Amino acid sequence: MKYDVTITIGLKEGMLNPEARAIQHALANLGFPTEDLSTARLYRITLDAADAAAAEKEAGQMCERLLANPVIHHYTIEVE
User: What is the predicted pLDDT for the residue at 2?
Assistant: First the structure.
């Protein structure tokens, strides 16, 4: 069965995020001050798996082995 999986990967709390800092500064210069800003990467993947739990497990393995660095990143997985 095919499952659509959405993986969101962001930096853990306390990690430096120069991209977010630059965007936050640029927004302030345009008149849009923000209290906090963070960035994340979003992956949408279609998987063929036996069930939703198997699709989620496979996506987690993708994160652990390639997509995320578990030392500095956190990630969430949504299966549809």
Answer: 97
Return all residues near 67 (Cβ < 8 A) that are at least 6 apart.
Answer: 7, 9, 41, 43, 75
Question: What are the extents of the domains in the chain?
Answer: 2-79
What are 36-57's pLDDT values in tens digits?
999 999 999 999 999 999 999 9
Rounded Cα–Cα distance for residues 77 and 28 (Å): 32
Let me know if domain 2-79 sits in CATH 2.30.30.370.
Answer: no
Model-level pTM?
0.88
70/68 Cα distance (integer angstroms): 6
